[in-house]
Amino acid sequence: MANDLECRALVKSYGAFTAVSGVSLAVPKGSFFSILGPSGCGKTSLMRMIAGFIEPTAGEILIGGRSMRGVPPNRRPANMVFQHLALFPMMNVADNIGYGLRRRGMAKAEIARRVGAVLERIDLADSGPKRIDQLSGGQKQRVAIARCMVLEPTVLLLDEPLGALDLKLREHMKVELKQLQHQFGTTFVYITHDQSEALVMSDQVAVMNAGRFEQVGTPEDLYYRPATPFVAGFVGDSHRWGARITAQAGSDLRVETSTGLALRASAVVPLAEGAASSVFVRPEAIEVRVADGRPDPAPALADVNVFAGRLESLLFNGANSRAMIRLARGDLIGAVLPQNLLGTRLGEGAAVEIRFAAAATLAFPAGGDALGGDAP
Amino acid sequence: MNAPLNPAASGASAPREEGAAARRLSFILVFAPFALWIALVILVPQLNLFFLSLREKVGPQVYVLGPRNYTELFGESVYVLTLVRTVVMSLLATFATLIIGFPIAYYIAKIARGRARTLLFMSCLLPFWVSELVRVFGWMLILRETGLLSRLLQGLGLVDGPVELLYNDVAVMVGLIYTSMLFMVVPLVSTLDSLDDALVEAGYDLGGNGLVVLWEIVIPHAKPGIVAGAIIVFMLNLGNYLTPTLLGGKNSQWFTAQIYSQFITRFNWESGSAFGFVLLVTSSLIVWLALRASGQTLSGTIGKG
């Protein structure tokens, strides 16, 4: 399938500072592509280059196979939903949506017909004559999208449009955005710093850090098969250790953490014995058992890490409840609390055993990770 | 049962009354200078002028009430033409000030950053550090027959002899625009400042060119500032005496000069008062019409600016 948007070795620098350094991407037609990264990672610069508000220092942007070099924003087949939506307060809803069509010199009757059709599609059929400040947050959101979609752009750019909404509405709009994208079948490029927005809605996600793409892949790829320590730390929660490789056979590693734990881990990239490493394990990969002295029904296998510890605290959060477990060496590890333990009398201070597979214990070369410790 | 309640109630209300009295007193004290200013400087003299304008002189020290001062004014075509000319020139000067001031204000509000912004704003204010008289003399030095501009034109070989650039309508216009520019730029900068850059970008992104964005987004947003600036500048122009008189000379035919000559030259206070009142009513009427036409209110424009 053809690519609606392509960037080739895109660079943007401001003096000595490089905001975007050598980003290449290809977004297939009709897909939902997210660029996920912390603030200041260059994602806004990247989006503004695609929209045409800033010129790239080097590299090329193609929209619908056509080079955008020297094409001003008002002539690009890409439209943008702004962070604060930027609906025109001096016009009513219908005039806002019709703005782009009027620029194309379309006949009045045809504009009215198309605006009516798109208003119907976003369930705001009677809201045409309303003022912008008479709309709710979610309605404004839909009008902002409709204002772009009525122009039938090749690519729709969305610049964190859910950031200003409250949590409940944001959850709702995530689903609605995805549905709108399905309905219109347009290519969406969505930038955000919120991993759950990116994971829920996207077909493909690019994780961006310090002006570069760390990894591009499906949400499942990023979550289960992170390619870099940054991605492992930034996407989802993990426990992270600084560690040293003590033995290596293929991708099977034995490492010793800075806290003195001996772990079995899998190398994501080839790592040599003695190398410094960052080791990540996800809370849901850690199994918690009550250490009641009875023999383990599934005896420890060679590729499972088993540690004894004490339950330090229970953090209740519905299905996301956590057990914080203190190991003998002093590590405090969060594990997803199994539902069968939630109801029991398991008190704080109880002796427990945790186990996690070596395959779920990912080792990366040290350094370059996002935030250290538990991810955002 | 009631006995213990009553003293408690009165005990609570007495300090409340005291507090209310204190608040009323402090309100009166704070409000007094403003009220005095309005009453003594504006209301009383205006009423006085109004009564003066309705007095008809029938003999030495003998007056009767009547509209003769007004009928005389409107009966004499020179006076009416002067009024019309003053209004038209003031409107033109206001429009020219807007046309010149808008890009300046846009540059200061939207494009200039940091120190450049402060510097530009200061340079708009700078001419007001010297008196209007000095500023007007400055223009006279530039525009007179032996002035800078005349010499420059001769030096460039564009004209054969000295040219008199003073004492015409253009000179008056230049002076008026120069004098009132700041009062147009300040309200414009403040409204343009509040324009979200994303609106301008969205205007381009959805297919608009510079002209469309200006016309459909920037100007509608700046409308309160435009109206506020235009009202202030128009009032200043209409009531200006020094600039039209000095730069326009005898030909200026500004209405304020007529008022001056009624009061001072002809010592006809009754007629001068009538002239003054006609000017006041005319300018109020035009401002009202302009507000109606632009769909703005006085409190929404000047009040905010």
From TrEMBL, chain A:
Keywords in alphabetical order: ATP-binding, Nucleotide-binding, Transport
Family (UniProt): Belongs to the ABC transporter superfamily.
PANTHER family: SPERMIDINE/PUTRESCINE IMPORT ATP-BINDING PROTEIN POTA, SPERMIDINE_PUTRESCINE IMPORT ATP-BINDING PROTEIN POTA
Molecular function per GO: ATP binding
Protein name as annotated: Spermidine/putrescine transport system ATP-binding protein
Protein's UniProt keywords contain ATP-binding: yes
Species assigned in the record: Ancylobacter amanitiformis
Keyword tRNA processing among UniProt keywords: no
Start and end residues of each ABC transporter domain: 5-235
UniProtKB/TrEMBL annotation, chain B:
Record-linked InterPro entries: MetI-like, MetI-like_sf
Transmembrane regions: 25-44, 87-108, 120-142, 170-189, 225-242, 273-291
UniProt entry keywords in alphabetical sequence: Cell membrane, Membrane, Transmembrane, Transmembrane helix, Transport
Keyword Transport recorded: yes
Main location: membrane
Membrane topology listed for this record: Multi-pass membrane protein
Localization per record: Cell membrane
Keyword Membrane part of the UniProt annotation: yes
Domain ABC transmembrane type-1 stretches: 83-290
Similarity comment: Belongs to the binding-protein-dependent transport system permease family. CysTW subfamily.
Name of this chain's protein: Spermidine/putrescine transport system permease protein
Originating organism: Ancylobacter amanitiformis
Lineage start: Bacteria, Pseudomonadati, Pseudomonadota, Alphaproteobacteria, Hyphomicrobiales
